[in-house]
Design a protein that fits this description.
480 residues, mainly alpha, two-stranded antiparallel ribbon, globular
Length: 480
């Protein structure tokens, strides 16, 4: 058979059966054996099939094998606050997209006077707009919006699909959208996950404002590194870009007109929700208001804001329809993956499985044998390598689950290392399978896969060095 799609699922199924049938290996318990079997089965399916229905299957297996009751597994997955937070955030960002504010935002950056006639300034400002807007939107939404602006611009300049500058520009869209994911917790499930795990494993509270102090500078560092690679390594011919007159961009801005009422409502609602999320950083939980904000959490404001956009009408139409929110706005594969991770992590941290004790005994000798700097570089390389072949969330989960117990075994595990693992899991630049934004730009035909792979691989070493010797020390300063 030429089509070998079944090999991965078959390997995953065999691993599941082995762990279900084998007697427990000390200190693992029967519950721990089942859990490891389900986790390995799901990880293989995630890597070879996709993240959508394998995540649903994972949730079902946890209940079917008796690891958790159906009520418990649904509460830990789809009822998990992070899942609901992601659902609400998708609604808020979809409101910005459907009202046209996201397009206006990007055009504002490239319509500045100092950009006209300067190709690299235009590239830099456009990608900066992608990164800033991507910090509050999903990578897919950011890439779609940016590509809709970039494509007619490239066509107006006479570029064709596969031309070096066009490929560079569109690759930049994907990379800038991906780099933005590590900047904020707003709608970015990996960052919310790591905040939750740090609270669980270290008892360390990270507020949204606290996270922004780390994420924004690091995101801009990564963007700066990418721009340097474009300018001095890829170095495409940009002479045609000089021909892009200020009139073209100005005309696009004029076509948008002034801000519409719907745009203002969408932006205002999003800002109110963000302020709500940030308020606990300024108000002590000992006060009545602070205690109330902590009790409500961050998922409810996101859901309420999205619902509000569905309720408010402008000229007889809702700012955001429920159908737009649920069908176009929510990345259901990602949401289901989050739900599955929620259920799996609840089981893994259960002391009755023996998993934590097993991993500590297995990895401690290795952890004690190498200097921490080597361990850190290996960790960053591992998560970066994994994330370029599979989902960012999957690579983050696998790396954290494997490497954090090692670090804890030698007393080097800390919130800074956890945040670095999460941040590096977003450096998915090399393959269409790495993340949705890379899939979108290669699928558009503007970026040949070999082009993205060639220059994506060049990013590996700079990323390992940047995260090991700059980002980690910076994280230690922020998360003390």
């Amino acid at each position: 058979m030429k089509n070998k799609w079944w090999v991965g699922p078959a390997i995953g199924t065999i691993l599941l059966l082995v762990f279900l049938l084998l007697p427990p290996i000390e200190p693992l318990t029967p519950l721990g054996m089942k859990t490891i079997g389900i986790f390995l089965f799901t990880a293989v399916w995630w890597a070879t099939v996709g993240i959508g229905y394998p995540s649903v299957l994972c949730i079902a297996l946890i209940a079917l094998t008796g690891v958790m009751t159906p009520v418990e597994v649904f509460a830990a997955s789809y009822g998990w606050w992070i899942t609901l937070f992601f659902l609400g955030s998708c609604g808020l960002t979809m409101g910005l997209r459907t009202t046209g504010f996201s397009r206006r935002f990007a055009l504002w950056f490239i319509s500045r006077r100092f950009v006209a006639g300067h190709p690299w300034r235009l590239v830099g400002m456009f990608l900066l707009s992608c990164t800033i807007f991507g910090s509050i939107m999903t990578a897919a939404a950011t890439a779609i919006i940016s590509m809709a602006i970039a494509e007619p611009m490239l066509q107006a300049l006479g570029y064709k699909r596969g031309d070096k500058f066009a490929a560079t520009f569109m690759t930049g869209v994907a990379w800038a959208a991906t780099a933005a994911l590590l900047m904020t917790p707003f709608g970015h499930s990996g960052n919310i996950l790591i905040i939750d795990w740090i609270k669980r494993d270290f008892g360390y509270e990270i507020s949204f404002l606290h996270f922004l102090a780390f994420g924004i500078p690091v995101g801009l560092m990564v963007l700066g590194m990418l721009l340097l690679i474009y300018r001095f390594i890829v170095n495409p011919d940009v002479s045609r870009v000089k021909e892009l007159s200020a009139g073209y961009v100005a005309q696009e801005v004029r076509n948008l007109g002034s801000m519409k009422t719907g745009e203002k409502i969408a932006v205002g609602t999003f800002l109110v929700v963000i302020i709500w999320w940030l308020l606990p950083s300024f108000i002590s939980s000992a006060t009545e208001v602070g205690a109330y904000l902590n009790k409500v959490g961050i998922a409810i404001p996101a859901l309420a804001g999205a619902v509000l956009l569905c309720v408010i009408r402008v000229k007889g139409k809702p700012v955001l329809t429920f159908r737009e929110w649920m069908i176009e706005g929510v990345e259901w594969d990602t949401l289901t993956l989050i739900a599955a991770i929620g259920a799996v992590t609840v089981v893994i941290e259960n002391p009755n499985t023996g998993i934590i004790q097993f991993m500590d005994g297995f990895f401690r000798p290795f952890a004690q044998a190498v200097p921490f700097t080597i361990f850190l570089m290996l960790t960053v390389f591992m998560v970066t390598l994994l994330t370029n072949a599979m989902s960012n969330l999957v690579s983050q989960t696998l790396t954290y689950t494997i490497m954090m117990p090692i670090a804890l075994a030698v007393g080097k595990g800390n919130p800074a290392l956890a945040v670095v693992i999460s941040a590096a899991s977003n450096i998915a630049f090399s393959l269409p399978s790495a993340t949705t934004s890379t899939a979108l730009v290669t699928g558009s035909g503007w970026v040949p896969v070999p082009f993205m792979l060639k220059y994506g691989l060049l990013v590996f070493i700079p990323v390992v060095l940047l995260f090991s010797f700059v980002v980690y020390p910076f994280a230690l300063l922020i998360f003390r």
